[in-house]
Amino acid sequence: MNTLRVGHCTITPTTAKPEAVKVLVATSTAAEEFDGTGADGSTTLQSALTDETVMQVKVYIYWDGADSDVYTNNIDNLLSTSVEITFTGLVG
Question: pTM score, two decimals?
Answer without folding.
Answer: 0.79
